[in-house]
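Example record used in the benchmark description.
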Amino acid sequence: MNIEESLNLYLRYLKYEKNLTPNTILSYNNDLLLMKDYLIKNKINDVKEITLSIFRNFLKFLDKYQYSNRTIIRKFSSYINYFKFLEQNSLIDVQLSQKISLPKIEKRFYNFLSESEINNLLETIDEQDNFGIRGRAIFELFYSTGARISELVNITLDKMDIKNKEIEVFGKGRKSRIVYLNNISLEKLNQYLNIRSQFLFDKKNNNYKKNNYLFLNKNGGSLSARFIRILLDKYLKKAEINKKISPHSIRHSFASHMLQEGAGIREVQELMGHENISTTQIYTHLNLKKLKKDYEKFHPRAN
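Model output (structure tokens):
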């Protein structure tokens, strides 16, 4: 089978059988296209022509891009899973996936906001118009739930239980989980819901559009992740917070603050939607506040 056909077959498998999100499939596609282009330029057109030696040469080719450790690991994972698919369907003879080892993960500490910085960021948002009301609701929801940006932009009205302060979100692999609203986020969300219909009003046709997504743009369409990143940059600048902060950093802040206040790591894992607890454990180094309290409480000479 030629490489182009195998990639199309694999991407359909990811979509319809693995049920991966569009963003995840796009990441796989981008990684695999890079390898496909390299192989075709080197006159490798059939998947059965791919050998371990050829793949290693491709990895050397990737060095010139100076990708980060995390990006390289993601790409390796993309290639290993693709090779596994080819092997399972008897499209290649060599067990390439068994001969490739993932690089070691370099430890990294995430950027996050302190509790006072979060409060400053949220209080800085001007709620004098509908856009400000929407903005405050978005970032209160981020901090209250610890949701990923892809989860937040895809929240629909039918997945919200305002009475019980719960929202069902869909994470990686379309796995669902329940996230929770605190009292402030509930208040700000209700304020937004009261004016949400104004984003749906079509002045040209003098009627209301239909859209089930929670957060809407000025034309009544769903908000994009890119727009929310731009919005966050605007609010960070206004709050004079000079850190490299992304929407994902607010998710990190949520987890860090929960642990600092004494939440168990298993509970935080569940709230974050982490499949492996090792992913949640990256936040334990930030749990200094609770550590100090425990020291003062239990050490015989602390006082």
